[in-house]
């Protein structure tokens, strides 16, 4: 059980720790528990509280006995009995579930809205009935007085299905093009729906007429918030008769009083991600809002943060167990998380032992070991683009570097190099193929990289081998066969550039040294052939000859280096002249362009950029827009792709943002200088 604390609020993660495979026998499980301390200490509150791959929605029945969750893959629903602390049943479905609702107090009546426009009804024994709605649905609500189901989705209509009569009724015609979420007030049964245009329409089910309209997109834009694009409504929840919370796709939560069109408070998550779930906690007057990255708890009167949680995996749904401090989440992972926060309320009746357990932990605090931190140096921070975090609470200085959260490290690494895994995978595949090729019969072939260098080494090795055989010396190891230099003939990054300035200046010296080596080998071979026993005199003569030859060689390669330098200077001059000629030609030959009707002339650069973009393929254009930040492609929970385009900022907005950034930087420098002066004055007083 992991314990975290933020703002002096302790959060106990009851699903932390490793989970054992289902196919293990009881005997092996007991053996593992004896050996592994982590498995022995873990708390399995509900047995097998997980999904095969992903869980999308999670809800609690009104009597509090059953917890129901849907997920993939394959599409299924699982019901867990809290009194037995285990799974009660599991049912597989034909298609993935968008959302579901428990109509009865227990699990005997359930309605599922599925991806393929299907609405499936389940009773206590299992599947009961299946029907279809005209357009794809995104959410639905149940109106208890009239037994009507209200479906909203990719249409301007709100479909009504009466469960008492068993037929569709006349739909509600709205002004919205599409609707994302809906909810019915539990007190006066007002029906509200959130649209893709960022508006909330309120309807009276008795008269089937619209009674109110809220423009939440306009209200979400404040002086502190930065929004790119039109925000749509992604979450909606009523609290009592008068309060309503609205979540937008840009990460804002707006709290309304139904008697006013202006929001009471606007809370920004500062992540720019759509709000997935909104819950109300009445004991402490808190609002629990969640996007895919973080769960925030804040006061609904002041907006002050109470605490927050950031799980490992992306969040799909949040469920607060009624009248308790237990919180459950559906994630992009097999295991569904369970959190217990004693400040919010007591533990449920079926797990009342949690109160005693947490009290014992608070009485006997143990030293925590930080295994979820990564050690990084300043160079690593610069490579990841996190050098600006030095001095903040996200980095803890230690020795010659810093400790940082492993989750932040992985996210920054993915942002810095998103294609690292693909490159690593390609490199591993290439290495495996080369290993299999090495087992075959190999022919003497030159490597792909640095062929000339390899040929030169092979020739030199052949000559040295012949000389060593005659002298009966041991053969020296080959550079081509040495593993330390293997990469030099495999990786194209080590390719010798013969046209570079360094190579052209050093090549005369290298060639002269190789010629000198060849001459030495020839002289030694001649001496061996003559069979001279005394080696002192010829060596003296050879040294004199070598000294004269070396002086001639030095003069020769110095002259060659000078020639290469002259050639390089001439090449640079020719390049400059060609550039000047091209500039003169462009100046002397003006070009005229016709402007199309209805278009304004801005600059030649814009038209040239547009022509280049039109020649490129759609894939290249999308990649370019992703780099510029005007396009964002993401995977939805259903498995489809979602592309969001951001509007380009005008020049005035850019200038304003640049001015604001400069102003912030100036304020930071002034604060730092003031704090530095205060610290100096304090030190001076201490010394006096």
UniProtKB/TrEMBL annotation:
This is Nucleolar protein 10. One of its GO terms (cellular component) is small-subunit processome. The keyword Coiled coil applies. GO terms for biological process: maturation of SSU-rRNA from tricistronic rRNA transcript (SSU-rRNA, 5.8S rRNA, LSU-rRNA). Residues 664-688 have a biased composition (Basic residues). The lineage of its organism: Eukaryota, Metazoa, Chordata, Craniata, Vertebrata. It comes from Acrocephalus arundinaceus (Great reed-warbler). Keywords: Coiled coil, Nucleus, Repeat, WD repeat. Belongs to the WD repeat NOL10/ENP2 family. Gene3D superfamilies: YVTN repeat-like/Quinoprotein amine dehydrogenase. The keyword Nucleus applies. Residues 369-417 form the Nucleolar protein 10-like second domain. Residues 482-508 form the NUC153 domain. Residues 1-364 form the Nucleolar protein 10-like N-terminal domain. Pfam families: Beta-prop_NOL10_N (PF23098), NOL10_2nd (PF23097), NUC153 (PF08159). Residues 528-538 have a biased composition (Acidic residues). Residues 528-557, 636-688 are annotated as: Disordered. Residues 648-663 have a biased composition (Basic and acidic residues).
